[in-house]
Design goal:
Shape: globular
Bound molecules: zinc ion
Helix content: 25-40%
Largest sheet: 10 strands, mixed
Oligomer: single chain
Structural class: alpha/beta
Radius of gyration: 25 Å
Number of strands: 31
Number of helices: 18
Amino acid sequence: MPSSRSRIVNIARRYVHQMRRGISKIKIATTSRIYALARPSRPVGVPDTVTHGPGGPILIIADRNRPFSRYLAEILLAEGLNSFEVIDVANLNRSTLRDRDLVVVGEVPLGTVEPGLLSEWTNEGGHLVLIRPDARLADLLGLRGPMASLSEAYLEVDATCPPGEGIVAEPMQFHGTADVYEVRDAQLVARLCRSPGERTEAPAVAVREVGRRGGRVAAFTYDLARSVVYTRQGNPALPRRRSRSDAPRRTSTWFRGSSDGATGRDWIDRTRIAIPQADEQQRLLVNVIQYMNRDRTPLPRFWYFPRRAKAVVIMTGDDHGRGGTAGRFESHQAAGPVGDSSRDPRLDWRRVRSTSYVSLDAPLSDSEAAAFDREGFEIGLHVSTRLRGNRGRGADWTPASIRMFYDRQLRQWRKKYPSLPSPVSVRTHSVVWSDWATQARVELEHGIRFDTNYYHWPADWIGGLPGFLTGSGIPMRFADLDGSVIDVYQSATHLTDESGQAYPDSVDTLLDRALGREGFYGAFGVNAHTDDPQSVVCDAVITAALHRGVPVVSARQMLEWLDGRNASSFDSLERTHDGVRFTVRVGTRAGGLSAMIPASCATGPIESVRRDGAAIAFDLERIKGIDYAVFQATAGSYEVTYGSEETAAVRQTEPMAERSTS
Ligand SMILES: [Zn+2]
């Protein structure tokens, strides 16, 4: 037994160790600094991949005082373009640009020398993407202006040729302000529109060849990052709530104009709701990047979901204490394929799995819950902000009260379910969302990193229209009002049993557009209440999914996948004389990860993909207008070679997809 003196020394050492851990977290955290100080043991930092990037040939120029510029990193991660580095504009100089293939400059203020530096670099052969550029770069872009600005309007992509090819051709909304330029000498990729029917000649996106050394420049004349965040999270200018009215402010309130003190104009134009507007615009950025880099280093990407799934159903249900959860889980065990018995059921995406958010008075016992948890089902908390009693809808919260609700109810939940892991995903009763981002922060403070509150509702507004309230089918991290990233995934609930949606039509439409030519890929969230064991909505969704080979998973499974995928990266990427070489690092629980790389480059079409020296199989697939070679991304060293035009001509008789070897 240690003496009291050595015990004290040990305690002191532990304390110092914890302090150090806290301090290292503070260094990487761009958000929640105060929280990191106060609670060093909690996972509050934003991962390094967002703040600095995994590294690679793409350089993002951001500004710590303009956090939206850092959201570009989250956009590239979501698109699987995991080979970038983020630096602060203060560190932009000749040497940071050296050896970069492509530089993306966020909406950041440039000093006196930077515009000249960027122009020079582009003229020397650099590839430059500018987000709402500094007017001093108009000449480089082949634009004149800006002569005016246009806010809260639309853009229309020219989908007839690259890089717009493959992106939806119908006008899409953007949020924030665009600068209006006149095109002098540039290719118009997308034009600004005042309304869906009112086009202008001003570019929303333009590209241009620069100089004689292969330089290229592109511009988004609006802040894409800000627009993506606003599209996903709703109107940031919704007035502060003054009095507590009877109806709480819910997630849909942030998108619906007529509700709750807003101007009367809907934030989401309901005629656009079928389009994942945020996803399509960030994919346009990816297409622009690939287009500009096409004769340089072909850039690999990770696919969105395991085993190349184009759609996933995230099956969840809220249980208000009526006890349907156990019966529902049992029906899911019987519903799908039994899966691979050698695999941990929590990781096996072939089985039908789901989440139930249970109220504290749900009759599910700890041992029952633990058995379902081992089988891969997720039991979470249906947090309630009801003020008293057990019936009725939730009430508006304040930053203080929402912390209190989470603290108290999670404490009770853990006491009731000591055998379960603490919840990592959540849906709040009545999807109450009283301010822009506090609830996401509170979730993070409690170890919850997956939010399903953004909800396709109500029936009399958007219920009958299948689509994307948040403009997205892809879970991505929240951003605060200033654009700083919060390490919690916002995953929309697209299908519910209380929005007047028709089944199976609603689910069929979403899945068919994900799998079909539209390419509206997505993780489609469902709330089929688990108050009762039976649910016709749940049955219809599972039938539609299984029929199409679409996985049905719990929210926790999706979170684990996202963390694994986003911790994966393409490292040491370098050009070779006939292609590109890189290593793939695979994050934990990123089983079924696949990668894709443009199927042709300057020298010709793809010839082979080798992993650790051995040729591996690949398929050719057109994704958003670009032909990619798609292959399994297990860890290893890869070498991709491209043939010359001559070798391509010789092989013309052989279809390329069949040339893949295994
Ligand atoms: Zn509820």
